[in-house]
Amino acid sequence: MLTTRTDVMDDHSVAPLSTVIEKIEKTKSNNNSQPASSCIGRRKLIQKIVFSILRAVAWVNGIALLIIVSFMVANGWRAITWTFLTQPPRDSMTKGGILPCIVGTLGLSLGALLVAFPIGVGSAIYLNEYARQGRLLRIIRLGINNLAGVPSVVFGLFGLAFFVTYLKVGISLLAGALTLGAMTLPVIIGASEEALKAVPATYREASLGLGATKLQTIFRVVLPTALPGILTGGILGISRAAGETAPIMFTAAIFFTTKLPSSIFDEIMALPYHIYVLATAGTEIEKTRPLQYGTALVLIALVLGLNLAAVVWRSRLRKRMQ
Amino acid sequence: MANIRQMKNRGMHVFFFSIATASITILLMISIFLFMEGLPIFKFVSVINFIFGKSWYPTADPPDFGIFPLIIGSLAVTVLSAAVSIPLGVMTAAYLAEIASAKVREIIKPIVELLAALPSVVIGFFGMVVVAPFLQNVLDIATGLNIFNASIMLAFMSVPTICSISEDAIYSVPTSLKEASLALGATHLETMARVILPASISGISTAIILGMSRAIGETMVVLMVAGGAAMVPSSIFDPARPMPASIAAEMAEAPFRGKHYYALFATGIVLFVFTFIFNIIAEQIAHKYRQVGEASL
Questions:
Q1: Sign of the CA dihedral B176, B181, B184, B189?
Q2: CB of B215 within 8 A of CB of B85?
């Protein structure tokens, strides 16, 4: 059973092709008795041009990100004050702060994590440690991949029909967190599975060889080794949940409340929904523009901050593993 | 003793298996509840009239529940955004996997990941307050909130999906294939175009389909940027009302378990079926044309 599992390395550690090419190119230029050298020159030129185009296209992504983020920062930083971060909205949301939204979003994403994390890690353990290739595994994977593809607004409809109406939870923090939890499940499964795969098979073999049971091996050897990677997945899950709007529109969020949620059955305000409401549904859309930028900036800072932390953490981890 | 251990092991196997079925259970529950709340509309409208009906006036008296304009709106933004996101995503992936030095890759890869992490409401907001006025002024059109704008914004949301899956596919092409091509005298570019791309085409197709599936289901961007007119658009600078936008915008005011409410859930069914088909096709391609070497999905 263990022999079938090879060490799955980091997908980027394939033999460096560039060194191979360099070597080949060197040998090519060494025997310059080639009659068709002008032809080679032209092919080289085309390659150069195409590669520059590809490079430019790749940087378009960076430029897009830069434009969006810098625009929000440029327009939003003035709105960020202590009052903005610590006060509820006032004067029909044209003044004041966004404290209830921040608290609501934190509550939602932590709640979603509480729901999705145990199930996600458990699923990943099954997929990586127990499952055998076959039809059953394929069906489970099909389910996970399709769950990942379900549109966010459909999750909202599901949350409304199941948690809010059928289970009679009502529009509340709990219903929103459960809906978001269902939505982030595939993210957590994917990240945890990758982390478990990266644990060398020799670790498992050593533990089993010492007489540990499979369960002991999983909990004392495999999981501790994979833990940082799994936690990275958790962070990504939180950030995904924090940024989603459609799933909470019908399940958790309301336009306006001055009080902070006191129980999980309370309706809440949330950052993404607040941006949407201020930008589209208010009577004073232009007047609240600074507040909209400010809220968007807070949301971006929260989400990108979490992601950046996860990315940096993961790249450190990869280096250590190698 | 050995027997007890075996039974325990077996028990744990079953335990973890039951956890792993959670995803499928949720997926089933989603379909059950969508159908439960959506099917009653067909007591009032026939399936054909619902899907091909050309007018969507859910609050008029008598109401019209034809979602054809919404479907066309969804397809229009999806196809147009794919026209931008496919070249952008695949070319970025090719650059990252084949050309970029390790250093550049370590910059661009996180950038693409951060792009994926940008909340959709922020991208929608950006499209509303920046891109829409810009388009309106530059192209001198009635409204900047239209299919074109929404497609551009959506494209940047599906690029990360397309890019990362394509990149994995390109990486998993065995080095021996590349070496063989290079040894025959092909340049690096020729190797990429004639060997690497054909070898990874199934993975790239999967990436493209999943990217389009992401675009068709995306809600906030089309809700805020597409303009919201429930009519069949005649140009890409017309406003449209894709299915997710319609659901998100109208659910709050639809009377609970009224016709409008059922109709919105039925729209959700159509949307769900669309993405489900996309995902199944992607799955089939990935499974059937499994790449040589390490499989990519």
A1: negative
A2: yes
**Measured between CA atoms, how close is A150 to chain B, in angstroms?**
7
Closest residue in B to A155 (Cα) is B30
> Is the omega angle on the peptide bond into residue B62 within 30 degrees of 0, that is, cis?
yes
Give the predicted TM-score (pTM) of the model: 0.87
As to burial, measured by CB atoms within 10 angstroms (0-12 exposed, 13-18 middle, 19+ buried), residue A285 is middle
pLDDT tens digit string along B204-223? 999 999 999 999 999 999 99
Contacts of A240 in chain B (CB under 8 A): 117
Residue A196: exposed, middle, or buried by beta-carbon count in 10 A (0-12, 13-18, 19+)? Answer: buried
Q: Has the ipTM of the complex gone over 0.95?
A: no
Can you tell me which residue has the tokens 């450190």? A316
Residue A309 in contact with partner chain B when CB distance is under 8 A: no
pLDDT for the residue A4: 37
- CA distance readout (Å), B276 to A83, A120, A150, A178, B269: 46, 21, 7, 22, 10
Q: Tell me the chain A residues in contact with residue B91 when contact means C-beta distances shorter than 8 Å.
A: 53-54, 57-58
What is the full DSSP assignment across A232-261?
Answer: HHHHHHHHHHHH--HHHHTTTB-S--SSPP
SS3 assignment, position B65? strand
What dihedral do alpha carbons B228, B229, B232, B238 form, nearest 10°?
Answer: -80
Nearest-5° Cα angle at B127, B125 to B132: 125
CB A57 within 8 Å of CB B92:
yes
Angle (CA) A232-A151-A275 rounded to 5° is 75
Got the DSSP string for A73-133? HHHHGGG--HHHHHS-EETTTTEE--HHHHHHHHHHHHHHHHHHHHHHHHHHHIIIII--S
With CB atoms and an 8 Å threshold, state whether A146 touches B276. yes
Q: Which two tokens stand for residue B228?
A: 């919201």
Residues B266-276: tens digit of each pLDDT: 999 999 999 99
Q: Where are the alpha helices (DSSP H) in chain A?
A: 17-30, 37-76, 82-86, 99-125, 135-149, 152-159, 173-197, 201-209, 214-217, 223-243, 246-249, 271-280, 289-321
Calculate Rg over the CA atoms of chain A.
Answer: 26
